[in-house]
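pasting for ref
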Amino acid sequence: MTAFMPLVRGIIYAAIGYAIGAGIALSIATTTGEPSTEPMIVLGFVFAVIGWLMGVGMWTTWGRGWFGKSTTMDITGGWERYLRFNVDHKVIGIQYITSLVVVFLLAGLLAMGMRYELMDAGQNVFTKTTYNTTMSLHGIMMVAVAVAAVMGGFSNYVLPLIIGAEDVAFPRINALSFWVVPPVVVLLLLSPLFGGFDTGWTAYPPLATQTPIGGLLFELAFLTFGISSILGGMNFIATIITQRAPGMTWGRLPIFAWSVLAASVISLTATQWVAYGLLMIIFERIFNMVFFSPPGGNALLYEHVFWFYSHPAVYIMILPAFGAELEIISHFARKPLFAYRWVVRAFALIVFLSFIVWAHHLFTSGMGESLHGPFMILTELISIPTGIVFLSALGTLWRSKLRLKVPLLFALGVVFNFSIGGLTGIFLADVATDIALQDTYFVVAHFHYTIMGGEIFAIFAAGYYWFPKITGRMYNETLGRIHFGLMFLFYNITFLAMFAPGTVGMNRRVAEYPPEFEFMNLITSLAAFALGLSFLPWIYNMLNSWISGPKAADNPWGAKTLEWQTTSPPPLENFDEFPVVTGDAYGYGDESVVHAKFPNSTNAVPAEGD
């Protein structure tokens, strides 16, 4: 029971904090004569988060030092260390991964409910409002998984290891960035009990300022999650710049680290814009300020602010996925990463272009027509650096002797799926076709091919690849192959089937639709149910293997990068002896190339494995 005390204490302190904040807001509202409900929720939530953080261990680890008192850096313990404020990057990575797995599965269940509703053209389970609130909750939960699963989860665990560091640059900020996430999940799960939000995950005003209290909970959750993303981006940038092992020059940096660096630049800079936008919406609700709503406001302004973040946010999701995909392909193809330097340049160009293509989301919004052409050209230009990444994967695979293990199967799935997502994105970048396809199921299919087909498949690739390192156990290869085969098949049936009704105008975000679309929706729903069932082998495989799977070798894949040159799982400070980098991380085929050496050891880093 003592293991759960930090969580219990956090909940108690959060309740006390909420009472203090709500009391202050009520006093001010009573004095001014203004409505008090939403100000009480907002200020109460702010104090509740502070109380929650202090209760789960931030006070003893960090807060006491603000007042000149001694602190304890909590980095040890058994499984109970995952239930409190712990500054070990490996613990934080596992906290992110396990939490987001739960969010992913809950969001998937919401998707099953939506597909059940859409099996036929009539109204079945949901009302129009409850369908939209379910769709909105599914959307924001899946976006949270896509943003944080690799950046918060695998990047936290792997990045310090792969660059030969002891930890991230700011361990306590790292822990803070995770522990603000549970309140986000709580708010999202509470929102349906308070009327939900039917704005979609975009929170467009003026609807976003007129929703029930559930909408306010969503806006607070989104804003808080943005704070976590900003802190994480700052930490990873500082870590890669300052914590690399001796000899790890920029030209020797593994491609996964480059992808995290690129995504972190976007995360640190772009996320602030959506935070400003959400803050203005909250101010409209509680202070009656006017930014976006009539009279006097401009809703189109919010769309510009929102998409100035949210299109770069696509690359916060997909860039680390690209990095993990290329890592896996190089190691399992036993070939140097093709066009490594061009991929690094492509990542930099994607970061730059991602900030100047946002308005292709606004082609049908009433934006000035003079802006259509420039944004169309810029959007199509971003396909060039993205194509370089795609060609790097193909070039590495070309004429190689592949070891078709489960991680590589999912990485190949990323290549296949993202090619469809990229090609269909060209239609939405073009003004004429975008006007015809806007708000149809073509957009839904394209988005899922980009994010689920690219990002989510890459998450599973990374999960299978680094599972032995994280757990010290090996999983069942046969169950992994079954999971991939079922997921790949039914995923493609589900979303390929959406292109057909979308092309002829079936609108997204509606529970009822014309009967002529019923057959394709029935196929989509049946495939979606099968897709949901395809995750059962994965759940069983991961849980059973983590508990009782065979012991993993330190380097079961025979990879050269540094995370595989320590024990599985790694010791507290990652390496018993810190390495000195001497060569390329992908120098396969040339035995003279050694990625790193340990000065007090006579053995170089091994290049081959089972």
